[in-house]
Amino acid sequence: MTDLSDLPPALPGRGALGRSGVPLFVALALWAYAVRHTDVSRLDDYGLVSALHPAFWAGLAVLTAGFFLTVRDPRRPGAWAAAYVLGLLVMERATQAVLYPTPLYAWAWKHDAVIDHLLTAGGLQTADQVGDMAVYDQWPGFFAAQAALVRLLGVESSTLFMAWWPLVSSLMLLLPLLLIYRTFTRDRRLIWTAVWLFYVANWVGQDYFSPQSVAYALHLGVLAVVLRRFGRTPAGGGPRPAVWTVLVTLLVTAIVISHQLTPGMLVVCLLALCLSRGHRDWVPLATTVVIFLAWCLTAALPFLSAAMPDMIRSVGDVGANVETGYGATPTGTGAVATSWAARLLSGSVLLLAACGVLRRRALRHRARPLLLIAAAPLPMFAASSYGSEMIFRVLLFMLPGAAFFAAAAILPGAHPPSADVGSRETGDARPASPGARRRAAATWVPLGALLAGSLAFVPAYSGKDRINYFPPQEVSLVQELFDRAPEGSLVVAANRNYPLAYDSYGSVDHYWFLDDARSHVDRIVARPAATLATDMAGVERPARAYLLLTQGQYANSEMNGQLTKAQLDRIRDSVAASPRFELVAENGAGWLYALKQSGGAQR
Q1: Per the CB 3.0–4.6 Å rule, which of 110, 189, 285, 470 could disulfide with 270?
Q2: What is the DSSP letter of 41?
Q3: CB neighbours of 268 closer than 8 A, spacing ≥ 6?
Q4: How far is CA 470 from each of CA 280, 393, 593, rounded to the nearest angstrom?
């Protein structure tokens, strides 16, 4: 089996061009039909998986098969492989934006609140002014850029475009991925298969409207520049190295002022690259470390000073850093199935990557820098729990290298550029004329792996949409709360899983009782109205204390092993029957109660 880069370019006729596009057009037509006939009004514990019309699954299968047949055929132009990957991104990342009338994910709504506050306040603020939310003002890069975009577009808020951010942020990754992979091979099959596997294995969900989504794209951009321009034998010609040093400096600065974790990941990746003989250029690493430390010792110092004791205690505690803890354990058949789909998807890609490293000796030697980058994030398990999310972030940063070697494992005869005949014979020995069984395996094994990964992505990525989707009624109810809440009011809720949860955070306080100690949660379940009334007391006029219970809170609590529906219903029924509370608003998505005021203060 030869490297496709060795084959002479072919000029496909109109028939070949037509055959290349038929599966893509059929898949997109099936997708369009599916989204028109999918009802998301009543999601169950399987999220979008059980709600999708069967035509979606058929379209995804057709798209995957069409991609594989296109990318393995040297007579078909490489642009068709790119078209199929774009089709995959549309089906993966645009489906939710088309189906749901409101943006997904409570954290995306939180980031919208930060942008709105930045526009309203007119500048950055300290912890004395906005409390814990000041951490976002200490890493303002993403929020300042989005605030500028809101003003440039003349829109009311970022909610008008943040539903499409997963598609946008995924597209931002495509160019740096291609540059990284083309550094180590010219085999079109390997490059595009690795890109495909990267996208279908990237279920972690950090593509939503967040600083991480942009910082991760910039992270890959830095690695692409370093791999191609700072190696001992840089790819191609180009400007002098000083130009690329300036570019790396700009990219690193944008990362450092936008996100806490990504600069650390970039440092360990660049340090790993310095262990490679061909990339012992310390300029990118030194530049990153200097900029990172400068920011940590100035703008980010208030947050780091307060958080440093906990950060130091977590160093080396690998067990605690990877455990989920109370309130993050999947509960119920749907949640457990979704969790296992995600684990099996990531585990399969990592296992295939290990096989690729072991089987492709010549590729392993040529792409050793990429292997080092893939392994570099692993020590971060010992550094911090990162809010019980470190395991997901490590997987995310390992994925570019893991996808490359996983693609090499399922594709026969994938070779690095300029590998001589001897290295191919020793590193990737293949019979000159494989038999029918080997030819069949070379076709069905890669196709089966791609198809399984593409289908598994859907439950891994969208299986928790019952938690992440907030219907318009829920948005309307929460908006009514903040429209009527006077300055200094207190909003109490079970958890923060509802839209606009951080709206007006500069003037309204929040208390999520499921974040409290389990003993106090048990007291609330035992005597709901009395305990909550005590917790909500002390808010002085004209401010008020509100209790908000919504569909999103119910879903999050049930599916993450906090309180059951029966327990939440008990809390609601107790508050509804209590003379100390009054019903302020309700609709099909939730209830809003206010603690009655007596005299100058609430009791």
Answers
A1: 285
A2: S
A3: 376, 377, 379, 380
A4: 50, 25, 20
Query: Which stretch of 265-269, 430-434, 538-542 has the lowest confidence by average pLDDT?
Result: 430-434
DSSP state of 490: E
Q: How far is Cα 248 from Cα 122, in angstroms, rounded to an integer?
A: 30
Do residues 525 and 563 make contact, with C-beta atoms less than 8 angstroms apart? yes
CB count, 10 Å around CB of 151? 10
Q: Is the pLDDT confidence value at 439 over 70?
A: no
- Token couple for 504: 């007006």
> One-letter amino acid identity for 199?
Y
pLDDT at 372 over 70: yes
Residues ≥6 apart with Cβ < 8 Å to 62: 23, 26, 27, 30
Q: Which two tokens stand for residue 198?
A: 């990267």
Do 507 and 485 meet the contact criterion of CB atoms below 8 Å apart? no
- Per-residue pLDDT at 304: 81
Question: What H or E segment, with its residue span, contains residue 81?
Answer: helix 78-89
Both structure tokens of 25: 């057009």
Global confidence as pTM = 0.88
257 within 8 A of 365, measured Cβ to Cβ: no
Q: Are 560 and 330 in contact (CB under 8 A)?
A: yes
Distance CA 428, CA 443 (A): 18
Would you say 464 and 519 are in contact if contact means Cβ atoms under 8 Å apart?
no
pLDDT tens digits along 163-173:
999 999 999 99
